[in-house]
Design brief:
The protein is an all-alpha fold and 128 residues long. Helix content is 65%, strand content 0%.
Length: 128
C-alpha cells in the first residue's frame, strides 16, 4: 500500500488524503482497464439515446464517494499541471460548461492513476 501511495503522490493534485481515499475506495485501481475504472467510479459518460433521439450524456452511478474525492484534486491539477490545464481550456473553448470540463479532468486523472499503478504492479511482479 505504501508503494501504491507513493506512485499516486507523484501526480499534481493528489495529496496524502486523496491517495488514501483512492486506495481505500477503489481497491481495484491498477488491476482493471481504464474504461472499467471510469465506469466503476461513475465518471464514464452514459448516453440517453433512443431511436433517432440523441439525448444528453451524463455521469451517474458508481462509487460516489470516490468521485467526490477526485473533485478538488482535479481543480488543483488544472492549476498546477500544464497538460491538464490545456485539456480543460480546450473543453471550455469548445463550448463545454466548467462542470463538464472538470469531470473530464477527473476522469483523466483517474485513468492516469490507474495506468501508473498498473505499470507499477507489472514491474513489481517482474522483480519478485
Amino acid at each position: 500500500m505504501k508503494a501504491k501511495k507513493k506512485v499516486l503522490l507523484k501526480f499534481k493534485g493528489i495529496s496524502d488524503v486523496t491517495a488514501a481515499a483512492m486506495l481505500a475506495l477503489i481497491p481495484e485501481l491498477g488491476y482493471i482497464k481504464n474504461r472499467e475504472v471510469s465506469s466503476l467510479v461513475g465518471l464514464a459518460p452514459m448516453d440517453r439515446d433512443s431511436g433517432i433521439f440523441k439525448g444528453k450524456r451524463t455521469i451517474s452511478g458508481g462509487r460516489s464517494h470516490a468521485r467526490k474525492a477526485l473533485y478538488m484534486p482535479a481543480w488543483v491539477a488544472v492549476y498546477r499541471d500544464p497538460d491538464m490545464k490545456s485539456v480543460y481550456e480546450r473543453h471550455i473553448n469548445n463550448g463545454k460548461k466548467k462542470k463538464v470540463a472538470i469531470v473530464a479532468i477527473m476522469r483523466k486523472l483517474l485513468i492516469r492513476a490507474n495506468a501508473a499503478l498498473r505499470n507499477h504492479i507489472d514491474t513489481e511482479e517482474k522483480i519478485s
